[in-house]
Amino acid sequence: MGNGRIVVLGGGESGVGAAVLAKEKGFDVFLSDLGALKDSYKETLTKFSIPFEEKQHTEELILNATEIIKSPGIPEKAPLIKKIKDKGMKIISEIEFAGRYTNAKTICITGSNGKTTTTSLIYHMLKKAGLNVGLGGNIGKSFAYQVAFENYDYYVLELSSFQLDGMYDFKADIAVLLNITPDHLDRYEYKMQNYVDSKFRITQNLKENDCFIFCSDDEVTMENLEKIVLRARLLPFSQEFEVEEGAYLDGETLTVKCAGLEFEMPVDELSLKGKHNVYNSMAAAITGTVLELRNDVIRKSLSDFQGVEHRLEPVLRVRGITFINDSKATNINSTWYALESMKGRQNVIWIVGGVDKGNDYSTLASLVNEKVKAIVCLGVDNAKIHEAFKDMVPTIIDTQSAEDAVLESYKLGAEGDVVLLSPACASFDLFENYEDRGRKFKNAVRNL
């Protein structure tokens, strides 16, 4: 094979997709994963005659690559990655690689919170408008796999900071940055600026006729916006003040102005509730306006969107107690939004805990004080949570499984209460991932 040798590290959705695309483009491909591969992924690799290994990294089969495609889950400080870098070899992400082989327009969304919701909402809108559109990145099917076999005109891509880290020449046509709050600092030497720089990579390579959509109410975004030279059209969204071009609130009306086009819609007609979701809807509305979608399509999409699994997802009401699955809240800020959107005083039984990524719980203090009557910890080590809230919440208990957490919450609840699973932590101590945690929670609620 004349194209060179590509080694893919990590055999999940992203890695397998990248391996298949590389094979289709005539590269000599090898995939290596330190963990075990899912059977379905092994079948795909076998089907395309791609050699792979699991539960080990054989260095002589890896260090002879022309280029390495690294899955976003593998940290930069992994010993093998350090070795590859010391050799001066190029490491890229699946998104960077796939971007070389498509001429589709890309709408790329990043941010500490709201990415999946906003990405899904924009995709929903473009589908409704009848556009030929794919959904990928940190959500759904691998972008690379779709580039190999589909012929979409547009892609809506959710991009995490880890994916952006491995992107160099890739360019968004429309880049959306929702917000920046401390997250994943364990992967960024506990330096906030490293994480901020990573998020701002979404703006790299933007040209004059491309658009950068961002939240002008977000302090961190605004502080850093001034430091970088952007050639793109800047389209801010704000709930605090009116903007010339972009989106803002005119009383209770969401208003978009962009290149002579205008869009308006009452906030109470948005299907997604809560202040943070108004921001997500604003970002989507600007995107639709930039793409010159009809106003009635934008309006309908914003009013009939069903939301995302594991993100403030109502599960069931049992004996007057409402159970809500917000398992996707893997950081403090997501949980802040969840608690902020809860109505009523002292009626929330909050299920929290997991792998803490350097959390500062003090930012939740006033909301917890006002809304939470009991805390049910769901994690291996809950000492930090006890320490943060012991003087505020009379009842804090520890559980080790979703079933236990649901049962204990149910016992603590009364009619009109809400049991909110919003962990503010990663899930890897007791679960495979946040989806697994959310599903086990929902099953446990259904089994009450």
UniProtKB/TrEMBL annotation:
GO molecular function: ATP binding; UDP-N-acetylmuramoylalanine-D-glutamate ligase activity
Main location group: cytoplasm
Localization: Cytoplasm
Cited InterPro entries: Mur-like_cat_sf, Mur_ligase_C, Mur_ligase_C_dom_sf, Mur_ligase_cen, MurD
EC top class, as a word: ligase
Domain of life of the native organism: Bacteria
Pathway linked to the protein: Cell wall biogenesis; peptidoglycan biosynthesis
GO CC annotations, alphabetized: cytoplasm
Mur ligase C-terminal domain sequence ranges: 310-425
GO terms (BP aspect): cell division; cell wall organization; peptidoglycan biosynthetic process; regulation of cell shape
Sequence ranges assigned to domain Mur ligase central in this UniProt record: 109-287
Binding site for ATP: 111-117
Catalysis performed (reactions): UDP-N-acetyl-alpha-D-muramoyl-L-alanine + D-glutamate + ATP = UDP-N-acetyl-alpha-D-muramoyl-L-alanyl-D-glutamate + ADP + phosphate + H(+)
EC number from the UniProt entry: 6.3.2.9
Keyword annotations from UniProtKB, A to Z: ATP-binding, Cell cycle, Cell division, Cell shape, Cell wall biogenesis/degradation, Cytoplasm, Ligase, Nucleotide-binding, Peptidoglycan synthesis
Family as reported in the entry's similarity comment: Belongs to the MurCDEF family.
Function: Cell wall formation. Catalyzes the addition of glutamate to the nucleotide precursor UDP-N-acetylmuramoyl-L-alanine (UMA).
Protein name: UDP-N-acetylmuramoylalanine--D-glutamate ligase
Organism this protein belongs to: Acetobacteroides hydrogenigenes
